[in-house]
Design goal:
- One of its GO terms (molecular function) is citryl-CoA lyase activity.
- Pfam families: HpcH_HpaI.
- By secondary structure, the chain is α/β, with parallel strands linked by helices.
- It is about 45% helix and about 15% strand.
- Strand 4, helix 4 and strand 5 (about 120-125) form a beta-alpha-beta unit.
- It binds ligand LIB3CWND and magnesium ion (MG).
- Magnesium ion binds next to helix 7.
């Protein structure tokens, strides 16, 4: 049986301090919205932003998945942000600058203690040198009983800030780190979302980075502007060609003349049961996207 698939092609950050953007996000075709209380909100606006986040989550964001990025536990706002998350129960709490496996466990314990429903997931931003190095240890906490950890998001801006790397087209300096985080996530069954692309007016550069993120294995991309949604949805969702090929591949492998064969020839190449599994996943993702209100 195929596990339920949640499309996460496009996760749009929306500053909680921006009421107009919160309203607009409701009607945009991103698969998820991340309401941000952290870096997109100036210190003087934190308290008001928290109340706006409360109202937006309570009202709902058009049925799409909603995450709340809280401020860090070591900031003056972190505790109140987490209390808000426990009371309004978004789909996920996005932890910025996740520091260690123990820090990830601690967020889960604190949500438990605050009475957050079990369905509230923990998502972790991997955006420090230490987090990249310890990504596997953090991801493994997802395998512990009652863990809420479900997803990693790459934070390339903070990674660049701390390490000094220059993020240029092609992201050569970041690639080993992206791959390490992706592997850590997959080894423990987590979803993995690629970093934001700051230059929202550069459509060609953004499309190239989406294609690269898809090739690297990410489920989707985090976004900062509505103009980025369509390209991310196209890059991370199966296209009509992918769907047609998946159907043809399954039909070929399961054809009566191939019964009992482990390896089958399909359009000049070898396919095995594992390729059927990949094709079935493609079709399941396509079905899940079709079931969204904003395919
Ligand atoms: C980058 C922006 C500040 C640009 O805003 P603006 O100048 O208002 O853009 P536009 O005039 O082009 O906007 C056109 C309309 O779209 C709406 N809009 C803009 N952005 C969003 C959004 N994110 N969500 C919903 N709606 C949005 C505007 O309101 C306009 O609407 P209308 O009035 O109908 O014309 C702005 O885009 C922005 O604030 N983006 C999000 C910034 C953010 O959240 N940053 C934090 C997350 S990124 C990060 O921290 C990454 C990570 O941690 C790391 O380390 O890498
Ligand atoms: Mg960051």
């Amino acid at each position: 049986m195929t596990a339920t698939i949640r499309p996460r092609r496009s996760l749009l950050f929306v500053p909680a301090s921006n009421v107009r953007a919160l309203e607009k996000a409701r009607g945009l075709p991103s698969d998820a919205v991340i309401i941000d209380l952290e870096d997109a909100v100036a210190p003087a606006a934190k308290e008001a932003a928290r109340e706006q986040a409360r109202a937006a989550i309570a009202q709902g964001l058009g049925g799409r998945e909603v995450a709340l990025r809280v401020n860090g536990a070591d900031t003056p706002w972190g505790a109140d942000d987490l209390a808000l998350a426990a009371s309004v129960a978004p789909d996920a709490v996005l932890v910025p600058k996740a520091a260690s496996a123990e820090a990830v466990r601690d967020i889960g314990r604190r949500l438990d203690a605050l009475g957050a429903p079990a369905r509230v997931q923990v998502w972790a931003m991997i955006e420090t040198a230490r987090a990249v190095l310890d990504a596997d240890a953090m991801a493994r906490t997802a395998l512990e009983p009652a863990s809420r950890l479900a997803l990693f998001v790459i934070g390339a801006n903070d990674l660049a800030r701390e390490t000094g790397v220059r993020v240029r087209a092609g992201r050569a300096a970041l690639l080993p780190w992206l791959q390490q985080v992706l592997l850590a996530a997959r080894a423990s069954g987590l979803a993995a979302i690629d970093s934001v692309y700051n230059d929202f007016s550069d459509t060609a550069g953004f499309a190239a980075e989406c294609a690269q993120g898809r090739d690297l294995g990410f489920d989707g991309k985090s976004l900062i502007h509505p103009a980025q949604i369509a390209a991310a949805n196209a890059a991370f969702g199966p296209g009509a060609d992918d769907i047609a090929e998946a159907r043809a591949l399954i039909a070929a492998f399961t054809a009566p003349e191939n019964a009992g064969k482990g390896a089958v020839s399909f359009e000049g190449r070898m396919i095995e049961d594992l390729h059927v599994a990949i094709a079935r996943r493609t079709l399941a993702l396509a079905d899940a996207i079709a079931a969204l209100h904003h395919p």
